[in-house]
Amino acid sequence: MRITAVIATPIRVPRLTSMVATQGRIDASEFGVVRVETDAGITGWGESRWSADRVARRAVYAAYMNSKAWQDKRRAWYARWVTLTGSPPVCLVCGRRWSMRSGHLHHLTYQRLGAEEPEDLMPLCGRDHNRLHDVLDSSPSWRHLGREAATIGIISMLRRSERAARDRQDLAS
Q1: Which residue has the higher pLDDT, 15 or 38?
Q2: What is the DSSP string of 104-152?
Q3: What's the CA angle centered on 110, arms 147 and 31, to 5 degrees?
Q4: What is the Cα 99 distance to its own chain's centre?
Q5: What is the pTM of this model?
Q6: CATH number for the domain harbouring residue 39
Q7: What SS3 class is residue 19?
Q8: What sections of the chain are H helices per DSSP?
Q9: Could you count the other beta carbons within 10 Å of the beta carbon of residue 54?
Q10: pLDDT given at position 24
Q11: What is the predicted pLDDT for the residue at 94?
Q12: Which domain holds residue 31?
């Protein structure tokens, strides 16, 4: 099953009383209602606390991730990796073999989304890609570094954690 459409509708709800914040006076709360459609005919609804701009950017991103252009980009990236290294890619955290079917490519930047350079993409297994985003998305400190620096730092942290877990397992056996 694949997502075929993401339709975001921003909603602005006036506040009963204004709030003053560092960015100025806030007279309304903004969030979005999101409808997701699949090729299996399933439609789901959700809400987002993201700004209308972020909801719209995520909709564009989701459509691209489900496009033929992205699949072609992944194939070209894979072929280039094998040509340059002489071996198939592996997850940069745990070392599991990366495949076209189950591997994830993490974007170091979204500045060239749709026209990514091979260096913009990092191979990760699904588990470690989710772990990376759990840290990145929940930590303003990491995000403050910028996406590329934060990604490299988080991957290093996850690799140390992975090694420590293996070392503990080796000691226990």
Answers
A1: 38
A2: EEEES-STTTTS--GGGEEEE-HHHHHHHHHHHHH-HHHHHT-HHHHHH
A3: 90
A4: 18
A5: 0.69
A6: 3.30.390.10
A7: strand
A8: 52-65, 68-85, 126-138, 140-144, 147-172
A9: 15
A10: 61
A11: 95
A12: 1-66
